[in-house]
Amino acid sequence: MSETSRRSVLAAGAAFAALPLSHARAQAANTIRIALLCDFSGTYRDVTGPNELACVRQAAAEFSNRGFNIEVVYADNQNRADVGSNITRTWIDRDGVDCIVDGGASSVALAVNEVVREKNKVFLNSSSATSDLTGRFCSPNLVHWTYDTYMLAKSTGGATVRAGGDSWYFITADYAFGHALERDTATFVRAAGGRVLGQARTPFPGTSDFSSFLVQAQASRAKVIGLANAGSDTINCIKQASEFGLARRGIKLASLLMFMPDVHSLGLEQTQGLICTETFYWDLNDRTRAFTRRVAGQLQSNVPLCMNHAGGYASVIHYLKAVADMGVARAKENGAEVVARMKAMPCDDDCFGPGSIRQDGRKLHPAYLFEVKAPSESHGRYDYYKLLQTTAGDEGFRPMAEGNCPLVRS
Amino acid sequence: MLEFLETITGVPTPLLFGQILLGLINGAFYAMLSLGLAVIFGLLNIINFTHGAQFMMGAFVAWMLLTWLGLGYWWALILAPLIVGATGVVIERLMISRLYKLDHLYGLLLTFGIGLMIEGFFRNQYGSSGLPYRIPAELSGAWDLGFMFMPVYRGWVVVFSLVVCLATWLVIEKTRLGAYLRAATENAALVQAFGVNVPRMITLTYGAGVALAALAGVLAAPIYSVNPQMGTNLIIVVFAVVVIGGMGSILGSVLTGFGLGVIEGLTKVYWPEASATVIFVIMAIVLLTRPAGLFGRA
């Protein structure tokens, strides 16, 4: 082979080798990477985890024909802030992720929030509770979608006080979420003329026996025991409160954050009559039922949908609408701009209906106060809730001026 | 006297008595679990990190018996330990028995890995929220003790676990079978020379230790959420109990289990935030002052 021809073969080979690379680069530039970070192995797995992944994938599938590619990745945050922020950094720095969905436990979400802001990406928080995310820690890169501690306190806490529960004792998960929920509820109780008689801060995770705290609560002579916890903590509290006969002694339980999977786990026999607040219920209206039918085949077999799962779907839908509107290239470049666009666009999806996003990042939609049905009233699979009251979005959440969000002041 | 107690503790006496009693109940779980661990470590020299998963399996098997076969709590109390114990026998024969000649660390890593796999399997099948399991009708209700309202079921847990602990201790310390077991730990070859089938005895001992964990799981099912991570929360504390009591000491682990339950219960009154760490603080102190544990032989 002559020198020339050898060179031309090498050149052709090199061009061929470079072809998929440039193609891949072009594809990456036209791909939006969405990463779901939540609990896949611990106490919050069922209220986020695989069902939320199915919902996020559903949102991506519904946007599959808009001229850009969507990739969904996910990871387990182990309910630890350090693990969550490390994964977020790796995703953004190494894997080119554009948008983090969920975050999970409040402590993790607060850490992830800072990383996303620093890297100027997008954080769609769909399951964390702390109202501080749109308060003192609010960020131009964050949308807090589903619910928060203030809304729960106002809806469930407010209804309990109105029903005569004017003296409270809190059993509080000892981390950011529990503290925020206790603080926000106590504010409502006091504002309504009620009293807070005490609280027990229980180690999280790792507490499975709550009898000691329940007995202390009973000894305080409070009429209401406020459960400022979630997941298996709430389940254990409700189970053990019934064992210790608290209801028979006239003490009410206020499950400030309870989800459908918790109710399913305890069974209607044990949960009937309890009230709780969610912003989504599968059987609420035609649109929620239609959504539930669409994702049904991809859900875990024994875990019902709850508002966090719906929040994952709806927040990603709205995000993708903004991306389609402003173009992939700009969306990848500037996360804060995408969030600003999301705030400027009215929201509408099958799970939460029409709504809007406030300047502080708070998504506004109605909050529903439900009562858990008695076994005799439940007529089908997951037919668990009776609607007691609906609070409109702008009334249910904390007024923007009270949150001390620096974005609002500026 | 009661008023004096109230003044120095700053907590109403009835509440204090109630908390001590609740501590004893939690201690009953610690005692039963650490007993199984102590039996396995004492005779097999294996640190059984699968114990938490086996405790969880006991609770799940109770749920399965009820849901799939309609067999209630009392059947579960007999069948669940046998079924889970049988899985223990299989695990010991197939895997653990190959590690006796190696360092402790290998057994620890193997059993830890098996535990993670079992928990992962149950998590995938049943999710993390847990499954409902009711207190049996015969044991529901509560006694009014004056100073507190005591659920009948919790009383049953304390009494039953005391009986099980005592029976296990008697079998190991006072019977011919127990003597063989203890002799086999000292010198397996010699005991085998007398015609005792030592490998089979070791396998059955592991099965029995696992069955104790499953029995505790059945006891726990009506009061704790039956979920895949229910053993993880408990097992770390139970390891601390075994270390404080002295590795391999049967009486030590039972007494320490109940004692630490009470200490933890009191911490929940005075400083709830520290109740998850108090046992580890005690463990550190005991390790520094008596490395072999309170009842262990150096």
TrEMBL record, chain A:
Residues 1-28 form the signal peptide. Residues 31-373 form the Leucine-binding protein domain. InterPro entries: BCAA_transport, Leu-bd, Peripla_BP_I, TAT_signal. Keywords: Amino-acid transport, Signal, Transport. Gene3D superfamilies: 3.40.50.2300. Belongs to the leucine-binding protein family. This is ABC transporter substrate-binding protein. It comes from Neoroseomonas terrae.
From TrEMBL, chain B:
Belongs to the binding-protein-dependent transport system permease family. LivHM subfamily. InterPro entries: ABC_transp_permease, BCAA_transport_permease. CDD domains: TM_PBP1_LivH_like. Signal peptide: none annotated. Pfam families: BPD_transp_2. It is found in: Cell membrane. Keywords: Amino-acid transport, Cell membrane, Membrane, Transmembrane, Transmembrane helix, Transport. It is a multi-pass membrane protein. This is Branched-chain amino acid ABC transporter permease. The chain crosses the membrane at residues 20-44, 49-66, 72-91, 103-122, 153-172, 204-224, 236-263, 269-288. It comes from Neoroseomonas terrae.
